[in-house]
Amino acid sequence: MNSVPGKFITFEGPDGAGKDSVLDAIIPDLRAKMGDKLVVTREPGGDPIAEQIRDVILDPQNTRMDDRTEALLYAASRRQHLQDVIEPALARGAVVICDRFVDSSVAYQGAGRQIGEQEVFALNQFATNGRTPDLTVYLDVPAQVGLDRIKAHRKDTQYDRLDQEETAFHDRVRAAYLRLAQANPERIVTVDAMQPLAAVIADVQAVLTENIPR
């Protein structure tokens, strides 16, 4: 076992918050500095089995998927990803940056699908054996703004099942994220994603500089 503890950092935000753009901007510099001590991954997915589950979850043709089935699939994908990628990386002292984790399920399935935030949290506590990020960077943007950004930058063929939900669904998702941030101020750092992209990137870089071991 590595004597230097790893660090688990997650990125969260409503659809259209700009996570992909921010991560694309910050990761190359981090990778150049950290080498194999940096592991970048995503959910759902992140390993071969979890990626197969991702394809099922997000396939726009799966219109009959039950809401609880969806939540269970996310938890199953997360468990496999955690065991195959995240835990081994943390055990060797790496910094793991993951695009989405349990907070996403609480917000999207618990609140968005209205099947219960506490119920979805409990399901994921079982799936992850209680693993919690050391730091979560939450990019906040109003739901309609995020959806407008998606429409402006994607073609019709690029929409997945969650993108196609009504605005009310995404409003519930954002409200849940804000509740999570308020309830977990020691873990979740909120960044205003309504700012110009360069300012958002600068804010995120400042947060990571404070929290990633040198």
TrEMBL record:
<dbReference type="InterPro" id="IPR018094">
    <property type="entry name" value="Thymidylate_kinase"/>
</dbReference>
<dbReference type="GO" id="GO:0004798">
    <property type="term" value="F:dTMP kinase activity"/>
</dbReference>
<comment type="function">
    <text>Phosphorylation of dTMP to form dTDP in both de novo and salvage pathways of dTTP synthesis.</text>
</comment>
<dbReference type="InterPro" id="IPR027417">
    <property type="entry name" value="P-loop_NTPase"/>
</dbReference>
<dbReference type="Pfam" id="PF02223">
    <property type="entry name" value="Thymidylate_kin"/>
</dbReference>
<dbReference type="GO" id="GO:0005829">
    <property type="term" value="C:cytosol"/>
</dbReference>
<keyword id="KW-0067">ATP-binding</keyword>
<dbReference type="InterPro" id="IPR039430">
    <property type="entry name" value="Thymidylate_kin-like_dom"/>
</dbReference>
<dbReference type="GO" id="GO:0005524">
    <property type="term" value="F:ATP binding"/>
</dbReference>
<keyword id="KW-0418">Kinase</keyword>
<dbReference type="GO" id="GO:0006233">
    <property type="term" value="P:dTDP biosynthetic process"/>
</dbReference>
<dbReference type="GO" id="GO:0006235">
    <property type="term" value="P:dTTP biosynthetic process"/>
</dbReference>
<comment type="similarity">
    <text>Belongs to the thymidylate kinase family.</text>
</comment>
<feature type="domain" description="Thymidylate kinase-like">
    <location>
        <begin position="11"/>
        <end position="201"/>
    </location>
</feature>
<keyword id="KW-0545">Nucleotide biosynthesis</keyword>
<keyword id="KW-0808">Transferase</keyword>
<keyword id="KW-0547">Nucleotide-binding</keyword>
<protein>
    <recommendedName>
        <fullName>Thymidylate kinase</fullName>
        <ecNumber>2.7.4.9</ecNumber>
    </recommendedName>
</protein>
<dbReference type="InterPro" id="IPR018095">
    <property type="entry name" value="Thymidylate_kin_CS"/>
</dbReference>
<dbReference type="GO" id="GO:0006227">
    <property type="term" value="P:dUDP biosynthetic process"/>
</dbReference>
